[in-house]
Amino acid sequence: MMNPYEGIDWNSALRVASSSHVHICNQKDLENGYKYGLRHIPISNYYPSAPYDESTRPSDFRLRQHWPAKRTDGSTIEPPINWNDIITWQEELGEAARSTLPFTEGGPAFSRIPEDIILSPNAEHHGFTNSYAHICSPGSSFISGNIDPGGEKYRLAAHGFVIGFGGTWQESFEDMLTHLKYPDAGGITINHPTWFSQLTDDQVFEMLDFDNRVLGIEVYNDLSGRRNWFEDPEFVAPSELEQGFSLNMWDRILTSGRRCWGFCVPDHSVEKGADWNGRNILLVPAFTEHDCLRAYRHGQFYGCLKDSGLTLRDFSATESSVSVTTDRPATIKFITEAGDVKEIYGETAMYELPKSKGAPDPVFVRVEAKDDTGERIFLQPVMYKNIAQ
Asked: pLDDT per residue over 128-144, tens digit each?
């Protein structure tokens, strides 16, 4: 039996709103994330896929790139790299790109960071030679890619530079894990697996089996939930019942006996202003970066949409039962590989496990709760059988 919430003191644990996948490129975006509750923010930008912190100056990426630039012929340009020296084909560029050249010094991305925010290294990596996946790594300082969105704005792709990582996802995972800030905290997340990356179950299994620091998948991605995918004639709708959610895939993964945490994230929605959905509520003993990233590593968090109203107050799991308490009446569902096995309305609910030869019969049990405001919370699973990692 594996219960990620074992040992949590529910009376004293701090609840910290975080996101493992959120794009915040400037002060306005940061203030919007702060306004709607984020306090631990592993910012996950790309172009380049580089961590942002209080000292980040986007101009440094353009004038002093401090990691190699990969080319499609397998060669690299070693740092430091000033892209003014390389982009000599201005006549090929559109007006928007030409107007930014030559690149010049600029100020920091963030002019003011509130004292009660913790930033952690992270980035969104992509452009793998053997997968369309997008991958984040909260707690990792690994950098990949270059300044050019899709390789198109500055036509770097047309001039022989790779888009994104430019190698296999396995190679990138090794790099991300090597650059983790803490050996016992943080890890790798698999982004929007059904809606954008359109990964198969087997592809996700292979990633989860690669290393136990591959933590899980996004079970809710707000940008995927808001985007009209069906205007794209090439888009193949996933077998999910709700747009933006990957709950069906999550249950299939858990049915295989693999440990897989479920993440709820805003993705690009914070950049778009107004309210947005997708938070991970970390359960930590203290408001420190190490404790926040440890919560991600060990599954000591739950996902939700808004972190407003409905809150998880207690959780326990034994060989006989799983029980949950919320701070207000809600529809509480217990889910196993057999589907929704129990639903009750109230502040407390318990599911008594069926037994087989004296042992718990389910492979996993996870819990969801929803109140009348539309808030939803998604607890991490308790694994009872065939734990693969």
From this structure: 999 999 999 999 999 99
